[in-house]
Design brief:
Length: 290
């Protein structure tokens, strides 16, 4: 049995324009991004809630905008290379169907949303991608809402698990009135973890100091940099584990910890960065930018 292909469709209010897309998630593979199709591709950064827009000033900015003319056709569509989905749609929809595609430029950010608080309303602070289809005499004419279609898409991060690097960090602490130091070493099982995977860390402590060490805490921190309108940096702990283990003076300890940085444990926290959403479905903590 052949696999089922889902085609996303959206129609303008006056039914003059329809847009069909084979998918809404486009993957950033680090060295290339899945190609997109049709008229205007925009990337918008909203850095304030919608209710903050006053006196015609909107707290958003277009980072990227590119337009393609679909009709009248610039090239003979019979001579263009089409995807299998495009070929099926052309056969089904007939002569009023016009295929298109876009390519994402290098270094364009992935779709990211800042999680609002439980009482926040309106549009969220986010990096949003959208495909817009409209009818007009010129491409820079004002878009008529009745004869236009806006379809949200996502650019998502993916990194193949081919790294052989084992992350290791070490540090030494020297205490007042203590001749010898405390040595701490932290190592991870691997460099890349996927959503839902536990982050397994090994802690090695060599206590040569004259002090007894009580309580050990590990945390996974999410670091978000917002550099478009100001150079802001937000650091949030998204997973934490505390241990009551002690390391008396002159002894050592080696222990493995498992941390779970999941959105399920951070649902109500304002300011956590998430992967972009389509409508209101659940998503994940934002992937690291590669």
């Amino acid at each position: 049995m052949s696999p089922k292909h889902v085609v996303f469709k959206k129609v303008s209010r006056d039914k003059s324009v329809s847009v069909y897309m084979a998918k809404r998630d486009f993957v950033d593979h680090c060295d290339f991004v899945d190609p997109v199709m049709y008229v205007i591709l925009s990337c918008t950064f909203r850095y304030g809630r919608e209710d903050m827009d006053v006196m015609g000033v909107a707290f958003k900015r277009d980072i990227f905008l590119v337009t393609r003319q679909v009709f009248p056709e610039m090239q003979d569509k019979e001579k263009l290379t089409h995807t299998r989905i495009q070929e099926k749609l052309l056969r089904k929809l007939g002569h009023n169907a016009f295929p298109f595609f876009f390519e994402f430029p290098d270094n364009l950010p992935c779709s990211v949303t800042m999680q609002p608080g439980p009482s926040d309303e309106g549009k969220k602070c986010a990096e949003k991608f959208e495909v817009k289809v409209f009818c007009a005499e010129n491409h820079d004419d004002k878009i008529n809402k009745q004869s236009s279609v806006h379809l949200s898409i996502r650019k998502i991060q993916f990194s193949p698990e081919d790294s052989k690097v084992v992350p290791v960090a070490e540090t030494t602490f020297e205490f007042l009135l203590s001749d010898k130091p405390l040595h701490v070493k932290l190592s991870l099982l691997k460099e890349i973890f996927y959503h839902g995977e536990p982050v397994k860390a090994t802690v090695e402590i060599t206590n040569s100091s004259g002090r007894n060490i009580k309580d050990i805490s590990l945390s996974v921190e999410q670091v978000t940099n917002v550099v478009l309108y100001s150079n802001d940096k937000y650091v949030k702990s998204v997973a934490r584990e505390d241990s009551a283990d002690t390391v008396p003076s002159g002894t050592s300890l080696k222990k493995e910890f498992s941390l779970y940085p999941l959105l399920a444990y951070n649902k109500e926290r304002r300011g956590i960065a998430l992967d972009g959403r389509l409508k209101h479905e659940d998503t994940n903590l934002a992937s690291s930018s590669m």
